[in-house]
Specification:
Helix content: 25-40%
Shape: elongated
Strand content: 5-15%
Radius of gyration: 25 Å
Oligomer: single chain
Order of helices and strands: EHEHEHEHHEHHEHHEEHHHEHEEHH
Number of helices: 15
Largest sheet: 6 strands, parallel
Structural class: alpha/beta
Number of strands: 11
Strand order of the largest sheet: 3-2-1-4-5-6
Length: 381
């Protein structure tokens, strides 16, 4: 394997959402990720085997009945050789399994113990169920997204993946950097509510400075401004415009052949609804491809709104190899790009008897011990 995290060993306790996304990022960057799959767990193994679960790429998989007698000892043996552990259970679950941070630190003092939850390890809501939409609602993020009539969840990008997985990846790499100097690991408590709130820092700052209205579709970046938004074309496709700076806006007016004096008063929010209506009418006169021929590649700050099926085939994305084919499934390539320690093209997950034997042998189990683990039902693949 290559990548800046080559040589880093990660144990992933199988889960859904941000945990797998975090470990996918670590694997993409070259880490050796071992996923411990629970027997009858929630992870979609059939999808994994078919290569359709994009977040399960780049790791080996070991299935263990975590509730079986002796299972915790097997996991602890694996943890002895790990740098990072990632788990996304509710607070207290790992402790009940005999795999809490203190026990793991006793076996590996340098271990970075990453914990991914929605509400965090403590607080009044810590043990309540929830999903991305709830976590970003509590952070203030959801309130700011969508049309004036009601908030609209931005997929699960803000809570699960931005405020959760990426914050956890950043946190465990920071802790690993510190552990290599101090010789001591630590717990990283990554809560999606905390992460989503942090992503909103610029907007809280603008609100405090009087440059943001705490109302949807009334601001520069939330769809309120007519020169920063999306427009429907005559063929039903959409285009995006982000002509914020004066020089970009002037070019936009020039290329669109707009000489309406009202567009020179764009700093007046009271005129925004009228300007947007006029632009809607203008964009509706041509197809998306027609607008691409006129505006794409200029300093107007323009791009067509591509579907998931279209995005991998755009010339810019193709030139950068921004998407890769993995087992017949098109998926995003690793990011960001590293100049000297480039990441490899992702590979499908490895699972099966041979993989299990390899993992356990690396941890110090001989063939008789491995056979005993299978006979006891602890290891199930």
């Amino acid at each position: 394997m290559t990548g800046p995290l080559h040589g880093v060993r990660v144990i992933e306790m199988a889960g859904i959402g941000p945990g797998p996304f975090c470990t996918m990022m670590l694997a993409d960057a070259g880490a050796d990720v071992l996923r411990i799959e629970r027997r009858n767990g929630t992870s979609p193994l059939p999808k994994l085997n078919a290569g359709r679960d994009r977040m399960d790429r780049g790791r080996r998989v070991l299935t263990i009945d975590l509730k079986a007698d002796g299972a915790a000892e097997v996991v602890l043996k694996l943890i002895e050789g790990a740098d990072i552990l990632i788990e996304g259970f509710r607070p207290g679950v790992m402790e009940r399994l005999g795999l809490g941070p203190e026990i793991c630190a006793g076996r590996n003092p340098r271990l970075v113990y990453g914990r991914m939850t929605g509400w965090g390890q403590d607080g009044p809501l810590a043990n309540a169920a929830g999903h991305d939409i709830n976590y970003i609602a509590l952070s203030g993020a959801l309130h700011a997204i969508g049309p004036a009539e009601r908030p609209v969840p931005p997929l699960n990008l803000v809570g699960d993946f931005g405020g959760g997985a990426m914050m956890l990846a950043f946190g465990v790499v920071c802790a690993l950097f510190e552990a290599r100097a101090s010789g001591k690991g630590q717990v990283v408590d990554a809560a999606m509510t905390d992460g989503a709130a942090l992503l909103m820092a610029p907007f809280f700052g603008m609100l405090a400075g009087g440059r943001w209205t705490d109302t949807r579709e009334a601001n520069l970046l939330d769809g309120g401004a007519p020169f920063y938004g999306t427009y429907r074309c005559s063929d039903g496709g959409f285009v995006s415009i982000g002509a914020l700076e004066p020089q970009f806006y002037d070019l936009f007016l020039k290329l669109m052949e707009i000489d309406d004096a009202q567009f020179l008063e764009r700093a007046d929010p009271s005129l925004w609804p009228q300007l947007r209506s006029k632009l809607e009418q203008r964009f509706a006169t041509r197809t998306r491809d027609d607008w691409c021929k006129l505006l794409e590649g200029t300093d107007v700050c323009f791009a067509p709104v591509l579907s998931l099926a279209e995005a991998p085939h755009h010339p810019h994305n193709r030139s950068r190899n921004a998407f890769v084919d993995l087992g017949g499934t098109m998926q995003p390539a690793p990011a960001p790009r590293f100049g000297r320690t480039a990441s490899e093209v992702p590979q499908a997950s490895q699972i099966g008897v041979a993989v299990t034997d390899e993992i356990l042998a690396e941890a110090g189990f001989d063939s008789a011990a491995i056979a005993g683990l299978r006979a006891a039902g602890i290891v199930t693949n």
